[in-house]
Amino acid sequence: MRAERWQTITKLELIGFGIGFPLFLGLVWASQPGFVFLLDHANLLFHEAGHPIIGLFSQRLEPYGGTIGQLVFPVALAVSFWRKGQALPFAAALIWFFENWLNIAHYMADARALQLPLVGGGDHDWNTILSHWRLLAHDTQIAGVVKTSGWIGIVLAAVWGAWRGWANRGGPEVRSEFTEWR
Ligand SMILES: [Zn+2]
Q1: Is the separation of the CB atoms in 99 and 149 below 8 Å?
Q2: What's the 130 CA to ligand 1 centre distance in angstroms?
Q3: For range 79-102, the mean pLDDT
Q4: Could you tell me how far CA 126 lies from the centroid of its own chain?
Q5: ∠110-116-58 over CA atoms, to 5°?
Q6: Hey, which of 26, 79, 100, 150 has its CA 20 to 30 A from 73?
Q7: CA of 78 to the centre of ligand 1 (A)
Q8: Is 174 domain-assigned?
């Protein structure tokens, strides 16, 4: 991918990302496991909206609607930032996307235990889904893989953002044609 694909990143954006990411990590650590304050409140909202929307199209897919719902919004944001060439907002949207995986893993790991309080007290999505695929006995293992993948995604997105931030930093000098075409 050519560097020119991405807009120049200002110092202010870089500082925002440099402060924002540690703040995000602090929030994850300070929150109860699997439910990050504010961020997962928003995710829950998209989750709950996802069920009836997907349910409109297919009753069979309705149990998946919550998970799809909470992933669709960060993906849509990421695509939009990617198209605009805004590297750091793109990285932030990816971090949010992968933070959702931690939240999903937490719910998934509860498929047999059924200890989590459910909004509306309805069916347990992952109990339904994993039972259907005869994977219920592996709920915590699968959740472990999802959680680890989520963290890997978060770290990769952050490292990519930091690297992009460095590569596309706006210097005080105007970049010459020569460096652009190198
Ligand atoms: Zn649900």
Answers
A1: no
A2: 13
A3: 97
A4: 19
A5: 75
A6: 26
A7: 23
A8: no
Instruction: Give a yes or no: residue 50 inside a domain.
Output: yes
Q: Is residue 180 part of a domain?
A: no
Domain of residue 96 covers 3-167
Number of folded domains in the chain?
A: 1
Q: Which residues contact 153 (CB under 8 A, 6 or more apart)?
A: 94, 95, 97, 98, 101
Q: Classify residue 95: in a domain, yes or no.
A: yes
Label residue 4 by pLDDT band (50, 70, 90): confident
C-alpha torsion sign, points 82, 85, 86, 88? positive
**pLDDT bracket for residue 172 (50, 70, 90):** low
- Expressed in angstroms and rounded, the spacing between residue 47 Cα and the centre of ligand 1 is 6
Report CA(65)–ligand 1 centroid distance (Å): 7
Judged against a pLDDT cut of 80, whether residue 145 lies above it is answered with yes
